[in-house]
Amino acid sequence: GENVEQHPSTLSVQEGDSAVIKCTYSDSASNYFPWYKQELGKGPQLIIDIRSNVGEKKDQRIAVTLNKTAKHFSLHITETQPEDSAVYFCAASGGSYIPTFGRGTSLIVHP
Amino acid sequence: NAGVTQTPKFQVLKTGQSMTLQCAQDMNHNSMYWYRQDPGMGLRLIYYSASEGTTDKGEVPNGYNVSRLNKREFSLRLESAAPSQTSVYFCASILAGGQETQYFGPGTRLLVL
Fold it and tell me: How distant is the Cα of A19 from the closest Cα of chain B, in angstroms?
């Protein structure tokens, strides 16, 4: 089955810095790669996603890049703000509607 | 739309007690899921229901049972709770049919003593 590895497990940055979270996947059949943000005490919520026919996608301060050959994808957050502090999860799925999640990255943005 | 709702929000059980976690969605989604979240372990799939009338085991099904009551509701039952089942439980749903975004409920925090 699919295996998704996510790094780092914790990321601490200063407000205004950029943050990058990386994930690798094992199943070349995976074609959908979402990123979820989980705030304290809440359920995860989709922030951005990318499909395998696209190499990069941006939405304001966040972007996701995908390298199908290397089987890795990354989340980039620019100009970080304290409200970006949360746990971020990557996931991969291959059309079965059963995503495999990474173990999460705790992002801490210091004011 | 309320999205995905879960009850209860918090629960404390004694070892051996049983309980049912309730989940409902009002988005007419086809697929529903139960996950548990433990520190450092991410989200692990317990059971899922691809469509009304079907259920399948996920990664960690032991000690749990599920019922897809109708298209809206998907319940998770612990027949004899164990301390190892102390966790945060999330229900999620997907529309399917090409739409793969998962929508999560707010979670149920369960402590088994």
Answer: 20
